[in-house]
């Protein structure tokens, strides 16, 4: 599924520029929906009953603690590393109006986190556990590096470092909860908070 995500994510890079320009406002939401429609059914059919790939145990206390840590990593990390300028893709949202803007927002908050957690904290992390013979540290570091790398819309290395840290936190949440529900909900909450703040300040 990781390779499937790579294929869909990087496919727009081989589309001619004139085609992209004509459909640029719809490209991202279409890509998000395509990724979800390909990945989620595969998860439901083949992966959800595997060890630590189901819902797991959801603890409200743990959820709130992890969410606080993630929000601190996002905002305090940005302040400490002096990230003052918004990424280009965020600024470009200013020209997206009406229904397309809200479709983008809803997909980024409620849909993208589901399939990203399935792919990264689910399938990829599990595969790397096996590859590295249960070494949770190496598997977590490699998963987090690939998670940051796959966010091609970000160009500032400092932002990628924050994404790396967030991924490590989500991995800890996945391991402690023994499932994907907690990291999915944390990812949804994080995207809602961060994107809400970003779009309010645009």
From TrEMBL:
<feature type="transmembrane region" description="Helical">
    <location>
        <begin position="101"/>
        <end position="120"/>
    </location>
</feature>
<dbReference type="GO" id="GO:0004175">
    <property type="term" value="F:endopeptidase activity"/>
</dbReference>
<feature type="transmembrane region" description="Helical">
    <location>
        <begin position="58"/>
        <end position="81"/>
    </location>
</feature>
<dbReference type="InterPro" id="IPR052710">
    <property type="entry name" value="CAAX_protease"/>
</dbReference>
<dbReference type="Pfam" id="PF02517">
    <property type="entry name" value="Rce1-like"/>
</dbReference>
<keyword id="KW-0812">Transmembrane</keyword>
<feature type="transmembrane region" description="Helical">
    <location>
        <begin position="157"/>
        <end position="177"/>
    </location>
</feature>
<feature type="domain" description="CAAX prenyl protease 2/Lysostaphin resistance protein A-like">
    <location>
        <begin position="101"/>
        <end position="192"/>
    </location>
</feature>
<dbReference type="GO" id="GO:0080120">
    <property type="term" value="P:CAAX-box protein maturation"/>
</dbReference>
<keyword id="KW-0614">Plasmid</keyword>
<feature type="transmembrane region" description="Helical">
    <location>
        <begin position="132"/>
        <end position="151"/>
    </location>
</feature>
<feature type="transmembrane region" description="Helical">
    <location>
        <begin position="184"/>
        <end position="201"/>
    </location>
</feature>
<protein>
    <submittedName>
        <fullName>Abortive infection protein</fullName>
    </submittedName>
</protein>
<feature type="transmembrane region" description="Helical">
    <location>
        <begin position="26"/>
        <end position="46"/>
    </location>
</feature>
<keyword id="KW-1133">Transmembrane helix</keyword>
<dbReference type="InterPro" id="IPR003675">
    <property type="entry name" value="Rce1/LyrA-like_dom"/>
</dbReference>
<keyword id="KW-0472">Membrane</keyword>
């Amino acid at each position: 599924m990781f390779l499937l995500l790579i294929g869909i994510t990087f496919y727009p890079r081989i589309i001619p520029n004139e085609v992209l320009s004509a459909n640029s406002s719809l490209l991202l939401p279409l890509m998000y929906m395509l990724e979800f429609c390909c990945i989620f059914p595969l998860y439901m059919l083949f992966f959800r009953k595997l060890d630590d790939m189901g819902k797991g145990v959801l603890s409200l206390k743990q959820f709130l603690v992890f969410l606080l840590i993630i929000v601190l990593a996002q905002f305090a990390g940005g302040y400490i590393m002096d990230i003052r300028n918004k990424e280009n893709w965020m600024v470009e949202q200013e020209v997206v109006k009406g229904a397309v803007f809200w479709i983008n927002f809803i997909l980024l908050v409620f849909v993208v986190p589901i399939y990203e957690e399935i792919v990264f904290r689910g399938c990829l992390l599990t595969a790397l556990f096996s590859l590295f013979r249960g070494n949770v540290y190496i598997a977590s570091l490699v998963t987090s590096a690939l998670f940051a790398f796959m966010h091609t819309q970000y160009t500032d290395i400092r932002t990628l470092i924050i994404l790396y840290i967030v991924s490590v936190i989500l991995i800890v949440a996945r391991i402690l909860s023994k499932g994907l529900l907690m990291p999915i909900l944390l990812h949804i909450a994080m995207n809602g908070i961060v994107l809400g703040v970003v779009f309010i300040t645009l």
